[in-house]
Design brief:
Elements (H helix, E strand, L loop, with lengths): L1 H35 L38 H4 L7 H14 L13 H11 L3
This protein binds heme C.
Amino acid sequence: MKTKMISALAVSLSVSLSSVAIADDEAMMQAAGKEIFNKCTACHSLDSSKNAFGPSLIGVFGRKAGALPRFAYSDALKNSELTWDEENLRKWVAGNDDFVPGTRMRHVEITDKAEQDYLIAYLKTL
Ligand code: HEC
């Protein structure tokens, strides 16, 4: 009886410990992504009401490409029919002008898979 209780306790302890570890990972990825996002802030404002040289990226995850009403997108992006899911964001930051030829966004090239993961984790929070 006693051993049963102890092992149940041990199980619940290890479950809650591992979920803490996951939460930490997520936070760490977002923090790392925020650092990488410094490469983007020159053109992308974090104020949702404002488009800078580039469109606001608030709420970009899951949004259709070229969809903000007050931003003058290139025809290439407007007509791309893309949705900003994980896969498309990965291709975009790896080489936006190869992915969408004719885009007005200056070439970026983040090819490191881990860096892409961090950046996307951060973009999801916006
Ligand atoms: C030199 C300025 C500049 C930099 C630096 C820049 N962008 Fe952009 N970005 C733009 C412009 C301009 C557009 C609109 C492109 C178009 O209309 O073809 C854009 C569009 C986008 C879009 C599509 C948004 C939408 O509403 O469809 C995403 C996503 C994006 N940028 C992410 C990034 C990320 C992530 C970085 C940093 C790694 C970055 N950009 C760096 C200027 C920039």
